Amino acid sequence: MTEHLVASGLSWAPRGGTPILHNVSFTVPQGQVLAICGANGAGKSTLLRMLYRYLRPDAGQVLLGGTDLWALNPRVAARRVAAVLQEQPTDFALTVREMVGLGRTPHRAGFAGAGARDAKVVAASLHRMDLVRFAAKPFGTLSGGERQRVMVARALAQEPELLVLDEPTNHLDIRHQLDVLTLLRGLGLTVILTLHDLTLAAEHADAVLILHHGRLIAHGAPRNVLTPDIINRAFDVTARIDTTGPSPRYSFHL
How many domains does the chain have? Predict the structure, then answer.
């Protein structure tokens, strides 16, 4: 299986500050979903920021399809990598269709307006995220969960090969959590996301990576990584796993 994303020796610290990420290395095959898990402050968001080119690593390298991600022209990088963050836009004057249309910006030359291809891609993204009925509504009138789905649709409109998402199930009800994660698995894209729900990670990710105080402590298939010993170490809790059903269920105790 082709290793689509290769991260090697990634480290980062704020200027003059304490290092947040220490020598993290992992690979993600083409089209697979990697869930990054860990306690608050483990370094999950910092790692994501390196993958979507917000933070340049102090050490290490990120290769996407064999190319150094940080060697790419910013516009080219924006065509290849899309990010969905927890922070949502504040420009509530745009309609849902216009917001999703912003995902086409890296594909336009200069000040060129939207063309037929752009409209087709935007329409498909709205349909995928079940947003067609909201297309003409102002973005600011939507609920938090609906806005989150718009942000995923905007990322899909970029037509990226790598999709990076920071807690994409936040603000979503159970139905739309499952809808979004099932959709992500069916895209054929390489997907890296942070999740705090270990049950969702076990059910929807091909692999799980666990961070603890900025260091990678486990990476592999969910059944091999989401074990009581590793969970206890990563979250400082006592974990119990119910394996009597079709998928594991986790409970935690101090």
Answer: 1
Instruction: Tell whether 208 is covered by a domain.
Output: yes
Residue type, 25: S
The neighbouring-strand residues paired with 251 are: 240
Which domain, by its residues, includes 9? 3-88+160-253
Residue 135 lies in a domain: no
pLDDT in tens, 33-66: 999 999 999 999 999 999 999 999 999 999 999 9
In three-state form (DSSP H/G/I as H, E/B as E, the rest C), the secondary structure along 187-228 is CCCEEEEECCCHHHHHHHCCEEEEEECCEEEEEECHHHHCCH
Q: Which of 180, 166, 157, 138 is nearest to 44 (CA)?
A: 166
In this structure, are residues 53 and 45 in contact, taking their beta carbons and an 8 Å threshold? no
Q: What is the token pair recorded at 195?
A: 């999740």
For residues 152 and 128, give the distance between their C-alpha atoms in angstroms, rounded to a whole number.
Answer: 10
* Strand pairing class (3-12; 21-29): antiparallel
Low-confidence ranges of the chain (pLDDT < 70): 1, 90-91, 109-114
Q: H or E segment at 33? A: strand 33-37
134 domain-assigned: no
The CATH number of residue 226's host domain is 3.40.50.300
> Is residue 116, in this structure, part of any structural domain at all?
no
pLDDT in tens, 155-177: 999 999 999 999 998 878 888 88
180 sits in which H/E element: helix 174-185
Cα 226 from Cα 200, distance rounded (Å): 11
Strand 190-194 and strand 33-37: the pairing is parallel
What is the spatial distance between Cα 226 and Cα 111, in angstroms, rounded to a whole number?
48
